[in-house]
């Protein structure tokens, strides 16, 4: 079987697994059946069993990664439709985004150093709390590895989505905007999807915070790399 046929079959298989997974998740909303969790697991197992290389798999599936950009920008539509909420709370949202970005970057890097993880993992972890298109853009000036960055972003999103409700309950956060901001800042796209399940206002705030946090991190990435590693050395 030629490499072209293998890559096309992988592309079709990816869409099929995702479609079936989404139908299952619609019926049984459990963490393990989340498409963000189950679909990659199934695909990885299939690739290991069939001994298909990553190069062959991604050959005709790479444009699915490109679609992350338009998908992220689509969150701007409900944000635009709810500008009144944003104008009313712009100061608290701005402060929250800046604080969340600083905390996410600093705690990720410092914890990685505490556990003496390699520098490339430290650099990749620095941008884990923003959605994938922004994280990949920020990874280059920071010095992170794209594959590691993508993995850490997914893990962060899944963990944040799974633990969000528990943490809100434990620290008695009941205000909808606070929940949306927390999910958007800490677990990007996955958290925003969960925020829309909670309510429209939560989803709008989460979308806005997710995008702003991504923009701030990308713009600050050269400074982050300089302060965290260049000055340190």
Structure description:
It holds the Pfam family LrgB. The chain has 233 residues and is an all-alpha fold. It is 82% helix and 0% strand. It contains 13 helices and no strands. α8 (90-114) packs antiparallel against α9. The longest helix has 31 residues, at 200-230. The mean pLDDT is 84.
Keywords:
single chain; 233 residues; mainly alpha; 13 helices; transmembrane; LrgB family protein
User: How many alpha or pi helices?
Assistant: 13
Oligomer: single chain
Mean pLDDT, as a whole number?
Answer: 84
- Rg estimate, integer Å: 19 Å
What best-fitting shape do the alpha-carbon axes yield? globular
Low-confidence stretches: none
Assess the beta-strand content as a share of residues: under 5%
Distance between the termini: 51 Å
User: Based on helices, strands and strand pairing, what is the structural class?
Assistant: mainly alpha
Helix residue percentage: over 70%
Secondary-structure element series: HHHHHHHHHHHHH
Main sheet attributes: strand count, strand direction, barrel closure: none
The total of beta strands comes to: 0
Membrane topology: Multi-pass membrane protein
Pfam family, one: LrgB
Protein name: LrgB family protein
Main location: membrane
What is the structure about, briefly put?
By secondary structure, the protein is mainly α.
């Amino acid at each position: 079987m030629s490499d072209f046929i293998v890559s096309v079959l992988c592309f079709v298989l990816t869409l099929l697994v995702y479609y079936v997974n989404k139908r299952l998740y619609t019926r049984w909303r459990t963490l393990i059946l989340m498409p963000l969790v189950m679909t990659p697991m199934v695909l990885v197992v299939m690739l290991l069993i069939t001994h298909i290389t990553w190069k062959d798999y991604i050959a005709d599936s790479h444009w699915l990664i490109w679609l992350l950009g338009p998908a992220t920008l689509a969150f701007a539509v409900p944000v635009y439709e709810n500008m009144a909420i944003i104008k009313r709370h712009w100061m608290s949202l701005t402060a929250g985004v800046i604080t969340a970005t600083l905390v996410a970057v600093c705690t990720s890097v410092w914890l990685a150093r505490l556990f003496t993880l390699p520098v490339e993992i430290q650099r990749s972890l620095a941008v884990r709390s923003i959605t994938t298109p922004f994280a990949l853009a920020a990874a280059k000036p920071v010095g992170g590895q794209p594959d590691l960055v993508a993995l850490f972003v997914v893990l962060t999103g899944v963990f944040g989505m799974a633990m969000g409700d528990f943490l809100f309950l434990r620290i008695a956060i009941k205000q909808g905007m606070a929940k949306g901001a927390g999910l958007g800042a800490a677990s990007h796209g996955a958290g925003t999807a969960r925020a829309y399940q909670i309510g429209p206002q939560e989803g709008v705030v989460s979308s806005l915070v997710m995008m702003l946090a991504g923009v701030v991190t990308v713009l600050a990435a050269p400074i982050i790399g300089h302060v965290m590693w260049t000055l340190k050395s």
